Amino acid sequence: MIGRDLLAISDLTAEDLWKILETAEHMQEVGRRDIKKVPTLRGRTIINLFFESSTRTRTSFEIAGKRLSADVVNFSSSGSSLSKDESILDTALTLEAMAPDVVVVRHGVAGVPRRIADALDAPVINAGDGAHEHPTQALLDLFTVYQEKGHLEGLSVAIVGDILNSRVARSNIHAFTKMGAEVRVAAPPTMLPVGVESLGVKPCTSLREAVDGVDVVMVLRIQLERLSGALFPSVREYAATFGLDREKLRYAKDDVIVMHPGPVNRGVELAPDLADHRPSVILEQVRNGVALRMAVLYLIAGRAPAPIAEPKQ
Amino acid sequence: MKRVLIQGGRVLDPQSGRDEVCDVLVEGGKIAAVDREIAAEGCEVIDAGGCWVTPGLIDLHTHLREPGQEYKEDIASGGRSAVAGGFTTVACMANTHPVNDDPSVTDYILDRALHDSPARVFPIAAATQGLKGELMTEMHALVAAGAVAFSDDGKTIMDAGVMRRVLDYAHGVGRPVIVHAEDCTLVGEGVVNEGLVSTRLGLPGNPATAEVIQVARDLHLAELTGCHLHVAHVSTAGAVDLIRAARDRGIFVTAEVTPHHLALTDEATLNFDTNAKMAPPLRSAEDRDACRRGLADGTLDAVATDHAPHAVQEKDVEFTKAPPGIIGFETAIPVVLDLVREGILSPLELIRRMTINPARILHLEYGTLTPGVPADITLIDPEKSWVYDPAKGYSKSRNSPWTGKPMQGRVVSVLVGGEPVYDVERGILTP
Ligand SMILES: [Zn+2]
Question: Percent of chain B, pLDDT > 90?
Fold first, then answer.
């Protein structure tokens, strides 16, 4: 069973993942109504504690919380609320004193949500920590693939891009391998972590090899600022070798889908026409993100002893 | 003249090779005799039954933080923690504020130690001014003031030309250069060992190769200059192999390993515990096992704690921002006793690496029970079970990965110059 917190996909079992996906299906139904709101978390407070800006993820959590009738409060480091001199634990404890029911944490350094969870009474959801994990992104990706393909076991998934520095890649590797999918990772070797095979994936050093016969290609955003770390020589060379376009996608299965956690660098990791049209499912991912985060908030905040309504079947 | 008889303990004196149950007589602060059944008449008697009686332990790598960072530790608290861990002599690194790169700082440390510390303290001076890795320090003047070795520990002298001149000059001074060997361009942002754990956690990795490359360079420079090179806190199988081969070629190199690199692996960081963050980092099980073998076969000469106190608020931060290092005096003996229990080292060989070997590296007269030397003696109960709580220890800091852990083996009594300075029941016995 998922624990008090949701910190990492690596902590979860396949059974936990299925339970979250099933709950997300119910939540998806709510999103299709005229009035997209249920009273499930009325009177509960969710704090979004974002030490690193991410409008997309924060907004997704905010909408998810509001659709469940929770009160959602945002704290972000760009505002004055999180000063540089205040330690993360002080900040978290200050928020704790305001008695939230859930704290959603995003931080640029791996492990911070876990340290905050250790310090707080309230449950913590990891909304991305450094290059460690981004569990709700992987869950929404899993959910999207499940809805597209109708099953997960036996699928082949290629993850392309800066695996070394990607929390999305780590969480997705754990999520898809736990569900019985085959996972390949592809990047120039400077962007593959040492011993990546130990995570149960097959490393590939060409895009052609990676996409050969796959059901899903997951393209990661290239952090252009990584150029300074000299992980790749130029955007042009990266786009030519690991940028995905329809030509390179020919080697995948006919019904392949293309995913991206956004925002896309058009023409770098993904050709522009591919970003905007099938087989890419990027907007489905965004849509599913809300339902999935509703499911997670429900499973975590809805556990507290107050009376709650079951989501409508 | 005051006479103390330490009776019936297992006396371990690596210098003489003695390992037998017998008595040690202390007279006028010096070792007077080591023999069976010495007459107790007129003596204050310490019953050492069931205990090891060893020369006072020597720690050649510590950070006492004074002057400048007394909120972490000072010479008084560090000295108390040292004797509570059985260390009667410690050498302290130069990365204080101001840096110990000037005889006035060396003087200050020695003066504080004389008045405040129950343990003997020997300063290690900086090898380069301000630890900047550029201009060498006034080594003759520093040795005259009391420095016993040179080190920019915490930093690596990356410029090979500077390092060559430091070794050449120190050779003329007749003192070792102690290196913290990590190629910082390879370390990069790395905060944990590069390997399966860094891959899993998504934390920047520090490859073993960063240490191996730097040790290789420094061994070649030691060969070129003839200077005594001492490699601090060896953590990799590759470095152990290089040092072994260099020793075989006749290069003047010695090396140390810490209790934490002997006991722990990078798996201790899996929960993001900043008290498992060190420099060099905790490595793989293969590296740890190679360090154990290196210690057993004598490639690694000494166990040194690298006692590195940091305040709670400094460690309780993001993993990447936390300073590396842990306190180590009071856990050293129980942690390294595991090597004896696992049959890796005999008690005598373990004690050799914590007494006479570090004494020789630093040219100190301590570390033996030879009659006539100052009576620095440590009594260890190798079986005693206890639970480590840094809050009950003597360091000002609490950064230890062994907090709350069960321990086996404990220092029970310590004499410095024949005077009892620590007893496990009564605590520190000097002001
Ligand atoms: Zn060091």
Answer: 98
Nearest to B319 by CA among B179, B189, B144: B189
Question: What is the domain extent for residue A62?
Answer: 9-133+287-301
**Segment B376-423, tens digit of pLDDT:** 999 999 999 999 999 999 999 999 999 999 999 999 999 999 999 999
A12: distance to nearest CA of chain B, Å?
15
- Residue A52 domain-assigned (yes or no): yes
Same domain, B182 and B40: no
With cut-offs at 50, 70 and 90, classify the pLDDT of residue A82: low
- Is there a contact between B195 and A194 if contact means CB atoms under 8 Å apart? yes
CB contact under 8 A, A107 and B313: no
Q: Which SS3 state, helix, strand or coil, does residue B32 take?
A: strand
CB-based contact, B270 to chain A, within 8 Å: no
Evaluate whether A259 touches A282 at the Cβ level (below 8 Å).
yes
State CA A6 to chain mean position distance: 12
Selected residue of B206, B271, B274, B319 to mutate for chain A interface (largest A Cβ count, 10 A): B319
**Which of B196, B205, B321 has the CB atom closest to A198's CB atom?**
B196
Residues B155 and B282 in one domain: yes
Instruction: For B111-165, write each residue's pLDDT tens digit.
Output: 999 999 999 999 999 999 999 999 999 999 999 999 999 999 999 999 999 999 9
Q: What residues of chain B lie within 8 A of the CB of A196, using their CB?
A: 199
- What is the C-alpha separation between B119 and B73, in angstroms, rounded? 14
pLDDT at A306: 44
Taking the alpha carbons at both ends of chain B, their separation in whole angstroms is 22
Structure tokens at A50: 């974002």
**Distance (Å, whole) CA A137 – CA A239:** 24
Q: Identify the CA nearest to B338 among candidates B264, B236, B254.
A: B264
| B199, B209, B286, best to mutate vs chain A, most A CBs in 10 Å | B199
- Would you say A109 and A130 are in contact if contact means Cβ atoms under 8 Å apart? yes
* Domain co-membership, B41 together with B93: no
**DSSP helix/strand/coil, B285:** helix
Contacts of B275 in chain A (CB under 8 A): none
CATH no. for residue B382? 2.30.40.10
User: Under a CB-based contact definition with an 8 Å cutoff, are residues B56 and B354 in contact?
Assistant: no
Cβ-Cβ contacts under 8 Å, B276 against chain A: none
Contact (Cβ atoms closer than 8 angstroms) between residue B229 and residue B167:
yes
Q: What is the DSSP letter of A133?
A: B
CA distance B336 to chain A (A): 30
Q: Which of B361, B390, B419 is the last residue in one of the domains?
A: B361
Domain limits for position B119: 56-361
My answer on whether B73 and B220 are in the same domain is yes
Cα–ligand 1 centroid distance for B347 (angstroms): 27
Q: Based on the fold, state whether residues A72 and A179 are members of the same structural domain.
A: no
User: What value does the mean pLDDT take over residues A147-174?
Assistant: 97
Q: Report the number of distinct structural domains present in chain A.
A: 2
Catalytic (active site) residue B19: no
pTM for this predicted structure:
0.93
Task: Provide ipTM, 2 decimals.
Answer: 0.88
Interatomic CA distance for residues A159 and A204, integer angstroms: 10
State the pLDDT at residue A311. 47
| Minimal C-alpha gap between A299 and chain B (Å) | 24
Catalytic residue, chosen from B23, B59, B153, B306, is B306
